[in-house]
């Protein structure tokens, strides 16, 4: 009902915030703690564990034929994994505390003001890259948050509220299974492509934008095809999901 939606939506936002709080600073934490010789190997390790995490996440989706009927069990599994990871990180990682300068503001808005001050006067390329990165992550978030429903409802024509055993319910389960399998394969492809890109940037004189721009363009084309050309083709939908 509406009450359940009103409660679940903010809880999902909180969960998403905690995931981003865990993921985003970790790369910087790795860079801060690693020596100069360890920077590149540790970034590779970071990418590797991200791929493992993605694979485990999509594998959890495969536990139940219709995951939406077992949201409590799935959320308990996810929250338990997050809790264990946070505890391990808290026990292992040690970072030098930040020493505030005399000029630093003590107000709660101080960090936000500092961010705006730091980006002031940056070259146009910085703002261009920031805008592109925001749009890319909007696309990634759409796939991650709504990809399963797109597979199950739009591509396979399923209905999670249909009676057990009817064609619509079975189709919904097949769509969710296709999304989970595609996510597992995508995790492996992400690891492979990330390692290839890292090798290209380290071993050649190719500029980063020359590598990044085609990836963004390919993603845009694939998203267009997913929106207007996939129809009810499960194989085509999976290919679009993998390349996206």
Q: What is the element layout, followed by pairings?
A:
Layout: H1 2-33, H2 39-60, H3 71-92, H4 110-119, H5 124-155, H6 167-203, H7 208-228, H8 234-243
The chain-level structural class is mainly alpha
- Give the ordered list of helices and strands: HHHHHHHH
Question: Using DSSP, what is the number of strands?
Answer: 0
Estimated share of beta-strand residues: under 5%
Task: Summarize this entry quickly.
By secondary structure, the chain is mainly α. It has eight helices and no strands. Helices cover 76% and strands 0% of the residues.
Tell me what you see in this structure.
- With 244 residues, the chain is an all-alpha fold.
- 76% of the residues lie in helices and 0% in strands.
- Helix 5 packs antiparallel against helix 6 and helix 6 (167-203) packs parallel to helix 8 (234-243).
- The longest helix has 37 residues, at 167-203.
- The chain is globular.
- The protein starts with a helix and ends with a helix.
- The mean pLDDT is 82.
